[in-house]
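hi! just following up on the protien thing from before. the input was this:
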Amino acid sequence: MSTAVIFNIQRFCIHDGDGIRTTVFLKGCPLRCIWCHNPESQKMSRELMFYSSRCTKCGRCEEICSNRRISDQKLDIARENCTLCGKCIEACLNGANEMCGREISAQEAYAEVKKDSIFYETSGGGMTVSGGEPAMQSDFTLELLELAAKDGMSRAIETCGYGERSFYERANELGTTFLFDLKAADSEKHKRLTGVGNEKIISNLEYLAENNADIVIRLPMIPDINDSDYDIEKMSEIIKRLSGKIKYAEIMPYHNLGISKEEGLGRTPLVNQPNVPKETVEKWIEKFAEFCVCVKQSK
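and the predicted 3d structure came back as:
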């Protein structure tokens, strides 16, 4: 029985594949995207999240934790000394402290997913495994997919593509839909933005395409980072090579919902921009069309 560290099982998801879905979010990712909207997923270990907007500086947590100090109406946390004991969570009356990450077995996670089966049957939905990166906790992910396959439940994974080939081979054998991120076409730029080159990612994408996988390419478009005409042209070249072997490509406009999570982790957001306006997304779609590539916009 496989186990993994997850940070959420989210119900009634409508953007993580077809129909209404339940999404299992895993912790741990090999990439370090500076715009990540789930920064709490990057580390595989548990983490403490502190939301200052909920804190009234009452001092209850300071009384039971030597790593906390209130000064000048501000609560400071010595995170490097935190043992993740959770006492601050129990002490807080306002929910300002949360523990992100819990270990769970694939059987337990799937039991939670199955509770929503009626919604899948009526909407054509099912289970999606996301993160983080599902390939990082591959045994758990594959066991979840196997359980869903036995029940005939639709299954999908959201992946950055940076995983072992054997994982993608087995996931494809199980009839998985791949929601496959393409963050930058140029490998050097990809490395600057995420910490790794994209050769392995492109190789896995091409393997899946050649082996009749069900693929949706997702294009996270971040203003002034990967949205230049050059970026779009290079990404278009990759998508055109796979013409007829993918379902479609989908633009994922940047949103700033991850900023509060970065702050909750005690980190300074590296990207802090307004959400992408509709007009900009339309411009991107038109630009892709110039290269004969059809893309959709995620809602």
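The mean pLDDT is 92.
The first strand starts at residue 3 and ends at 13.
cheers
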